[in-house]
Specification:
By secondary structure, this protein is mostly helical. 44% of the residues are buried. It has one domain. The longest helix is centred in the N-terminal third of the chain and has 30 residues. It starts with a helix and ends in an 11-residue tail after the last helix. Helices cover 72% and strands 0% of the residues. Helix 1 packs antiparallel against helix 2 and helix 1 packs antiparallel against helix 3. It has 15 helices and no strands.
Length: 315
């Protein structure tokens, strides 16, 4: 069985890398909003800020400064810089568990983000800076997929990616479609398109629904599409698969707490009636999804990271 500290570091590498990539997209969409001076553009910036938990929605009046802070602020634990720095530190601690290709790619991203000239590079071409960062994060994931053994460690890393992704998309949908939002309903074509961009879903959505931009279709796609790798349903399926693999590798078939929780969440998403969900409003359902993702994280820690030593000793 893998050491708990190793499993923990690999899991958090996955979470931090996914968080950095998601926040790159939010920042990019905010920058795109600076090209449009309409109320919809301000609304898009507010959505992006609320999705990362920033309560100061007045920042939406200046999307460029908000995007710059989300990218480079070293004091903000949610910034792209901080996420990459945390991912790199976790990778350093388990350097012997990952390949040279994955370490070098992640280290290169960190060096570029921490360079004294990073702020100037962002100012010279902010969207290109973000696009390059996303491309580098894709290269990191691709290097891991192509060079790391797809065993227990790989499952912990991917478990972090998909659990973080499910929570990020869930939080985004809660901001956009939840009853507690403090703004007019999202219905503007520009705003709806921007929401899809935040979820890296615009082109896949268009292939399914063409140019029919309706809030209920966007909610259905980002939450329930079985084939789109960033939908919550797809993520929960992967979470269940990787938890099953970890449980099998660890020989803990009798201790399937997180796997059982993941299976319940996956079934909830698989069998939800979309018509009923739209009629009742998605707020309660999205809260349940986010609460169950948090419960999976806690159960994962209890089973594989912070477990009592005596529970692993032979009888």
């Amino acid at each position: 069985m893998m050491l708990a500290r190793v499993a923990d570091s690999l899991y958090w590498i996955g979470r931090y890398v996914e968080r950095a990539e998601h926040n790159c997209r939010l920042s990019d969409v905010m920058l795109n909003a600076t090209l449009d001076r309409s109320e919809a553009a301000t609304q898009v910036a507010r959505i992006a800020l609320a999705a990362v938990g920033d309560a100061d929605l007045a920042k939406a009046q200046n999307p460029y400064d908000a995007a710059r802070a989300l990218t480079l602020d070293r004091q903000d634990s949610a910034s792209i810089y901080s996420s990459i720095a945390h991912a790199r530190e976790n990778a350093r601690q388990v350097r012997d568990q990952i390949t040279t290709e994955t370490w070098e790619r992640l280290n290169l991203i960190y060096l570029r983000m921490s360079d004294p000239d990073a702020a100037r590079a962002f100012g010279d071409g902010s969207q290109q800076f973000l696009h390059d960062t996303i491309a580098d994060l894709h290269l990191f994931k691709g290097a891991g997929d192509a060079t790391m053994s797809h065993g227990e460690g790989w499952s912990f890393l991917l478990l972090g990616v998909y659990l973080e992704r499910a929570q990020l998309i869930g939080s985004l949908l809660e901001v956009v479609f939840g009853d507690g939002r403090r703004r007019r309903p999202v219905g503007d074509h520009f705003a709806l398109t921007s929401v899809l961009r935040m979820g890296c879903a615009l082109e896949p959505y268009l292939r399914v629904y063409t140019a029919d931009m309706q809030p209920r279709y966007i909610l259905n796609f980002l939450m329930l599409d079985a084939d789109f790798p960033r939908s919550i349903r797809f993520c929960t399926q992967e979470i269940e698969n990787h938890l099953a693999a970890i449980t099998r590798h660890a020989g803990l078939s009798g201790a399937a707490g997180p796997e059982r929780l993941a299976g319940r969440l996956r079934a909830r998403l698989q069998y939800i009636d979309m018509e009923e969900l739209v009629a009742q409003g998605p707020t309660a359902f999205l809260k349940t999804v986010l609460d169950e993702c948090a419960a999976i994280h806690d159960s994962l820690y209890d089973a594989f990271v912070a477990y009592p030593l005596e529970s692993r000793l032979p009888a």
